[in-house]
Amino acid sequence: MITLRAIIVGLIASFVIGAGEPFTVLHLQASPLCADYSTGAAVLLFFILVFLINLFLKKVMPRFYLKPPELITVYIMMLVACAIPSWGFTMNLIGLLGGIFYYATPVNRWEEIVHPYLPRHLFPQSRDAIWQVYEGLPKGMRIPWEAWVKPLGNWFLFIIVFYFMSICLMVMLRKQWVEKERLTYPLTELPMAMVREREPLYRSKLMWIGFSIPLIIYSLKGLSVIFPLIPAPHLNQAVSIFNRAFSIEFWVFFEVIGLAFFMSTSVLFSVWLFAFLFTIQTGFLNRVGFSIGPVQPYSDPAPQVVALQSLGALLVLSVSSLWFARGHLKKIYLKAIGKLKGDDDDKEEMLSYRTTFWGFVISFIFVVWWLNRTGIRLMPSVFFTSIAILIFLGITRVIAQAGLAYHRAPVIPAVSTLDLFGSRYLGNAGLTGLGMTFPWAGDIRTLVMTSVANGLKLSTEFKIGCRRLLFGILGAIVVSLVSSAWITLLLGYKYGGINLHSWQFSGLANYTVKWVTNFMNYPVGFGKTQLGFLTLGGFLMFLLFLAQNYLLWWPISPVGLAVGLSEQVYHTWFSVFIAWLIKVFIMKYGGIKVYNKAKEFFLGMVLGSFVTAGIWILIGFLTGIQGRFYFTLT
Fold this sequence. Notes:
Elements lengths: L3 H25 L11 H21 L7 H15 L7 H13 L7 H4 L13 H9 L10 H35 L8 H6 L10 H22 L9 E6 L4 E6 L2 H7 L4 H24 L15 H21 L1 H11 L16 H21 L4 H25 L10 H23 L2 H4 L6 H14 L4 H30 L6 H20 L6 H23 L8 H5 L3 H23 L1 H33 L11
Antiparallel strand pairs: 1-2
Helix pairs in contact: 1-3, 1-19, 2-3, 2-24, 3-18, 3-19, 4-6, 4-20, 6-19, 7-14, 7-18, 7-19, 9-24, 10-23, 10-24, 11-23, 12-15, 12-21, 13-14, 14-15, 15-16, 15-18, 16-20, 23-24
């Protein structure tokens, strides 16, 4: 049962997340806690709410004590809110909207070759408002909010519709993934354990032992910044391969180890094995000098050959997910068009199947129309929307099975659209329109779709009234959007964007427009070679599916091939390997009883990692030391 007070607490937490993440990343330049699927900010705030505030209320003011379903409602709202402020949408968007004008010079000629194709309704039109957000507001002047209201309002309308389409898709697949296929959803293990009333997690000694490991080690790193005489522990090492053509990274992230422990052993093995093999392949290709083109945006460090193989595998994973759910999806369609009546199997869903189906269709049409208005032709707009949905669906499926703390798409939708249609067909307006998708479908490390998928898993476990949950999720989206935009602009006008985090206020705009202008100046056609390697990856994925389904002894899950070698996986594969090694050892020599008990230790590692990061963010704020306290992947 969802209560009003749970929604109110969730909205307050969403505001803290939306405003806190930009302040932490842009001003303090400390560990981002909303940038990834691990949703560290939600974990940190949930720790404070459950282990401190709620326990206090239970003893002192029991009338205000939040019950587990209420706590889970708050957590779901925080999950969704985390997917928006930084590498999800808002900070990227504002950095691009201003940077595309601020960094235009007579040398790069952006004003001549790019600006004519920018839709006026999506960009601020005041030159002073843009320059001041980058250089700071003169003393005594008020912030020109009115210059940003219209463009941000138009962008927010679009992204809310896109998020609603994502919600509809997850509602359609919830029963298939949660009840029929019973995916593991590793990222939901911690909140479920934190709210259990029998044998509370906070009373577990093993949990606090696991908690203390990142607390001690990360605190030593933090103390070494303040007191240089204290040695800082080194948790990373790189080994060069193929005569320094590439390197293998060995990083230890405690939150990755803790979350990875809840994957199945076959998925664990698959993720680290394919990451290692792709690393070797990349090194070999660099050594022999084989290339089909430069590394594509946000595919690094994987070259195109590796990235396209992973994309092919990811698309097969997405299509197979829809294929396995075809019976259920057919029922939804029949119910939507009125040919299936008297079936109330959607009463536990967040939306009725009829509303879900038509909501998805109407949202899809709106997104295509919106993209078309940005300068992208109709067919590329349809393709872009479709491929974006498939890529995001594949990533969501990967996270639901593998629970990766850090991940990114192997190839972004804009690149796939360019490979299929070519820059000559897209034209300058179409290329500019593709560049405008980078904030929400390019430089993305977390997704609302994935947060909703994990939220629906939690709502199923706790039998939460899902119809009311929709209002909580939509409220969290709106609050996170508004609060994150407000604080990002406020920080820009107060300190000057060029003095804040270098990527959002300089790197993103330059990177995006350089990609656009490169293909304006050097047009390309249909990517035959790219399609070949994409097909190869899809075919290998198909073979892995056959092996998994028909060979009982087959130990390798297909998921690892779809994960690929994103920058996040490149840095974290060794931590996944450590989790696999520990889990195999425990399952072989300790059995299921030891495994179930060991869960508390690894949950403690996850909790300790993000609580410690939060503590040092506070220390950085109080001491004025900026840009030095990094404990999570940045």
